[in-house]
């Protein structure tokens, strides 16, 4: 894929991140209610961290191993969150992660973005399996995954040490054959 794709849903535009997005990314992620639910982020989340995240997203796209989308509202171009898919090419599988800034919660944006990225993973990337890891206490994210069609496959007990606490992690997945049948 030569150019970074832009994906559209009813209310959202999922586009390439630009370095100009870094200040808003930092503001939205430097929030314990957001970062505290992510597996691989910690506070404080600096502007340098935001720039590094964006630069890494460009590098993984160039390498053909990852697509990290800025989730924006079509109505006013507000950047509301993040949704990505990272590939393990040899297994034709991809992991999705996402976050939505707290001012934009409860409006169905995560579900809308995750469904679109799952479709992108099967239709454009030709994947066989799409999966996600989620802290077991994160019921909102579990709902998002279930509404995107992923099924809980199991629990990795005390798999993550987060803020000094060992936490259980659930993993969810959707196979291409099931997506084709149900999608
Ligand atoms: C999880 C998160 C992405 C949900 O974003 P969102 O745009 O508010 O989600 P949606 O509006 O699409 O709602 C998805 C479902 O979760 C529910 N939900 C949303 N926020 C919730 C909360 N704080 N607690 C419990 N349920 C919640 C919604 O009611 C909905 O379920 P329903 O359709 O059964 O009613 C967002 O809260 C977030 O970014 N959290 C911090 C980062 C994170 O957890 N990322 C996922 C890591 S795996």
CATH superfamily: Gcn5-related N-acetyltransferase (GNAT)
CATH topology: Aminopeptidase
Given this structure, which CATH class is correct? Alpha Beta
Rounded to the nearest angstrom, the radius of gyration is: 16 Å
Unreliable stretches: none
Give a description of the structure:
This protein has 183 residues and is an alpha+beta fold. It has a single domain (7-182), classed as 3-Layer(aba) Sandwich (Aminopeptidase), CATH 3.40.630. It contains six helices and eight strands, in the order ββαααβββαβαββα. It has an eight-stranded mixed sheet with strand order 1-2-3-4-5-6-8-7, with helices on both faces. Helix 1 (22-29) packs across helix 3 (47-63). The chain is globular, with a radius of gyration of 16 Å. The two termini are 24 Å apart. The model has no long low-confidence stretch (mean pLDDT 96). Coenzyme A binds next to strand 5, helix 4 and helix 5.
Describe the structure concisely.
The chain has six helices and eight strands, in the order E-E-H-H-H-E-E-E-H-E-H-E-E-H. With about 180 residues, the protein is an alpha+beta fold.
Question: How would you describe this structure in keywords?
Answer:
single chain, 183 residues, alpha+beta, Aminopeptidase, 6 helices, globular, binds coenzyme A
